[in-house]
Structure formats: structure tokens, C-alpha cells
Design brief:
Distance between the termini: 26 Å
Helix content: 40-55%
Strand content: 15-25%
Largest sheet: 10 strands, mixed
Radius of gyration: 30 Å
Number of strands: 12
Order of helices and strands: HHEEHEEEEHEEEHEEHEHHHHHH
Number of helices: 12
Length: 390
């Protein structure tokens, strides 16, 4: 038998009993799909995290001690502090940002989009429009808002999609109608689900005159970000905390590491459960083909060739399961994120090469582990015993 005929035999044999093969494939595919789904979500979040290191954006974020990472809770800072920090050695520019939450009830939306947000609503930030580059907004589709007290606003791309709003539409915010002058996209799922208006306007709406939630700091090209951050903290001890963008990204990545660990745990579980399923399927296949294997040995097939055939059939079975699992994982993530409309257009899942290699690697390992014993058992069958088997 030539090589092509041998390979053809390996590909066809696993599907003689379609029911048993289908059950084994489904069992393995579910594990693979879970690995792919988690990998895509983690990849998407990691890609978004990298936007915090975007060139041109501020490298340091200053907030009240006890505030969260984005300074949206934990107290406000006098706006004048931003000017004082700008005078610190190594600082190129600063911008004060006031953040507030727009609840669903305070925003005029269409009925189809009113369910897109949880009870926390979305973030509205007040900033000087000339400082938008410090928060990673390099360009605006349309025009930026005015700092002259006009009721103008720009929306993140994801927020605009969820609200079904576009440039020229209006939106009611805190009881005031705002005209949408533009939309923006930073690549950060947090930023792109928010909105920006002028700092003075938000201060008036929220009764936070001359107050900001956080101050973003851009350092000089030749300055050491860590040193500048430490200088700021030393200047305002027990009052302000300064966090670099790199530190923020590392913290988020550490949190994502939990998801990654869960993915590896599922990989191990898939190997164990899938391996047991494949062993059962291949042992039954060998049991049913005992006489056939005896005939092959009687006509000159060596034990090594029998072993290669059964092991190959096992690997074919698991690789088919891998392909189906990858498809299920990709489709499943898209469907789930679309159903969860509050995050559907926020998290952008990423199917990386690493995720694909892990999926196929797990499938291959399952095929080898699951097929090794049945293949060994088949290769050791004595021709005379096998031919007498009924």
C-alpha cells in the first residue's frame, strides 16, 4: 500500500461509526471552544490595555489618595494644582479632568438603545478641548467641542454606536441638551465608551467649580517618567497619588493573568476529559476491527504500521474537533458579546496566533494521549488470535 492510500485509510477509518466519532468530537470541541473564547476575550482586553501607552498621550495620572485608577471617585482636586504640577521639572504639559457619570435616565436615547447600559450609565469627562491629545484623542470625526460655554459634546465611537447617535444629533445630559459635534476612537474600551465636554461646562453642571477629578501629566521626551511621578507624590504627600500609564497597564495585565490561568486550567481539563473520550472511542474501534487488524498483519503489515494507523486515526479525530471548536469559540464569543449589548461594542475580541496554536496543540496532545494505548494494544494483537476473533 502506497503512502497516499495509507493516509486515505487513516482519514476515513475514524468515521466508520459516525455516532461514536461525533460524540468524541463534540466533547473535545467544547473544551477547545472554551479555550478559544477565553483567549479571544483576553487578547481583546490586552490590546485595549496597550492604548494606555499610546504615543502622545499623558504618561502620568494624578488623583486624590484613595481614588480609583481613573479618579472618578474619592474626592476632587483644586484646578490650580494642574498649573503647579506643570512647573515641576520634567513636566511638559498637564490637563485637569473632571469626571461624572451620566445615568440612563438622564440621557435621551432611542428605545432600542436604552437597555445598552447598566445602572452605572457611562462616563462623561470635562477637559479643555486643546488638551484632548493627552487622553489619547488624536483626531475627531467631525469637530471638537467648544470651550466657550456652548452645549457641545463628542462621543466615543462605541458609545455613539450603542446610543445610535451620530454627528449632528443631540443628547440630553443632566437635563441639558448637547449637540454632538464629533466622535472619536482611541482603541481603549473605557475611553471609547465615554464622552467629553468642556471642563467649565461640566463643572457648572455638577457644581464642582474650579475642581477636577484627576490631572494627566505629559513629561518631556528626555525626562524619566518614574522620577517625575515620584517628585509629584513627594510634592503632595498624603494628598495625591501619581500613577504611570505603564503601571496602570501592568495592573490590568495582572488581572487578565487570572483569565489566562483559567484558560490554561481549562486546557488541562480538556486534555484529561478529551483524552478519556478518545481512548474509549479508539479502544471500541480496535475491538470492533480485531479481525480486520489480524488480516492486515497476516498480509504483512508490521506492528509499527498498525500502531501508526490507529494513532493517526486518533489525531485526525481530535484535529477535526479542533477546527470545529475554533469555529464554535469564535462564533460563540461574537454572539454572546452582541447579546450583552452593554459590552458588545466595547470589548473587541482578538483571535491571536497564540490562541490558535494553543487550540491545535491541545487537540494534538489529546489525540496522542488518547490514541497511544489503543494503538499499542492493536499493534500487539497476534494475527492468529485476531483472525479467529468473531
Amino acid at each position: 500500500m502506497n503512502v497516499m492510500s495509507f493516509l486515505s485509510l487513516i482519514i476515513k477509518n475514524p468515521f466508520r461509526n459516525r455516532t461514536r466519532a461525533s460524540l468524541a468530537i463534540v466533547g473535545i470541541a467544547i473544551g477547545i471552544a472554551t479555550i478559544v473564547a477565553l483567549g479571544m476575550v483576553t487578547g481583546g482586553l490586552q490590546a485595549s490595555t496597550q492604548s494606555t501607552l499610546k504615543a502622545g498621550a499623558a504618561e502620568i495620572s494624578v488623583a486624590k489618595i484613595g481614588s480609583n485608577t481613573f479618579g472618578s471617585s474619592g474626592g476632587t482636586i483644586d484646578e490650580s494644582v494642574a498649573i503647579d504640577i506643570k512647573n515641576i521639572s520634567g513636566v511638559k504639559d498637564t490637563a485637569g479632568i473632571l469626571r461624572a457619570t451620566a445615568n440612563v435616565t438622564s440621557v435621551t436615547t432611542t428605545s432600542s438603545s436604552s437597555s445598552n447600559f447598566g445602572p452605572m450609565g457611562f462616563s462623561v469627562s470635562g477637559i479643555d478641548s486643546t488638551k484632548l491629545s493627552l487622553v489619547g484623542i488624536d483626531s475627531v470625526n467631525g469637530t471638537s467641542f467648544s470651550n466657550e460655554g456652548l452645549n457641545e459634546i463628542i462621543l466615543g465611537k462605541s458609545l455613539a454606536q450603542n446610543l445610535n447617535k451620530t454627528v449632528g444629533d443631540s443628547i440630553n445630559l443632566f437635563g441639558t441638551d448637547f449637540k454632538i459635534t464629533g466622535t472619536y476612537e482611541t482603541g481603549s474600551f473605557i475611553q471609547d465608551m465615554g464622552a467629553f465636554i468642556s471642563l467649565s461646562k461640566l463643572q457648572n453642571l455638577t457644581s464642582n467649580q474650579n475642581k477636577v477629578s484627576t490631572i494627566v501629566v505629559k513629561v518631556n521626551d528626555n525626562a524619566n517618567v518614574t522620577q517625575v511621578s515620584q517628585t509629584i507624590q513627594n510634592t503632595y504627600p498624603n494628598d495625591l497619588s501619581a500613577t504611570t500609564a505603564a503601571d496602570q497597564a501592568n495592573r490590568i495585565n495582572q488581572s487578565l493573568g487570572v483569565i489566562n490561568t483559567a484558560s490554561w486550567a481549562i486546557s488541562l481539563l480538556a486534555i484529561i476529559i478529551g483524552g478519556i473520550g478518545v481512548i474509549n472511542t479508539m479502544i471500541m474501534s480496535v475491538f470492533e476491527r480485531t479481525r480486520e487488524i489480524g488480516v492486515l498483519k497476516a498480509v504483512g503489515w508490521k506492528s509499527s504500521r498498525i500502531l501508526a494507523m490507529i494513532l493517526g486515526e486518533s489525531i485526525v479525530l481530535t484535529l477535526v474537533a479542533a477546527v470545529i471548536g475554533i469555529i464554535l469559540g469564535v462564533v460563540g464569543v461574537e454572539i454572546i458579546l452582541n447579546l450583552l449589548s452593554s459590552t458588545g461594542s466595547v470589548i473587541k475580541p482578538v483571535l491571536s496566533l497564540d490562541t490558535l496554536l494553543r487550540a491545535f496543540g491541545v487537540a494534538l496532545l489529546v489525540g496522542v494521549i488518547g490514541g497511544l494505548y489503543p494503538a499499542y494494544r492493536a499493534s500487539k494483537l497476534a494475527p492468529t488470535e485476531a483472525l479467529r476473533y468473531e
